[in-house]
Write the structure tokens for this entry.
Amino acid sequence: MILNGVQKILVLWKEKVLPNLGSLSFLIIPFFALVLVADQAKSFSEKEVQNYFSETWKLEIDPKSNLELFKEAQRWIGTPHKDNSKNESGIDCSSLAAKLVQKAYSKTITGSSESISKQVKKIPESDLQEGDLVFFNIYGEKISHVGVYLKDRKFVHASVVKGVTVNSLDENYYKTRFVFAGRL
């Protein structure tokens, strides 16, 4: 389905745009081919996602799991942390949470961790479900960090030190800084 759309775009470029570009056309086709290949390379199969989360994070993805959440999380893992950034060269925690929620649940959240914390309904930690948001007070004053809950007490987030990674709510660092969980 995606390939058909890409093929239509390439045909349009070939018929309408390229004839008017002259000698630059030999650069444009390879560029779009690389973009397409790069985009496809970031798409993981269900089995790849299951194996990755099982082997790396000891999380079993079952048929009830939102596979899109895990695929998108895997796509971002390893991306460096960068304040006020929203792309593969660097991302902050609130932008990562917004991207994961949008991709997996088609819901929009915006703003800082503090701002996002006001957009959710607070829930008891014992009621956490996949896709819920977890909020932390890292610097001692207010909500300053957000992650997206996966399952089994683990969440994905953009760590200042490790970049996008998965941690457990039971780790002492996060346990002592956890403020509350929320659901959209």
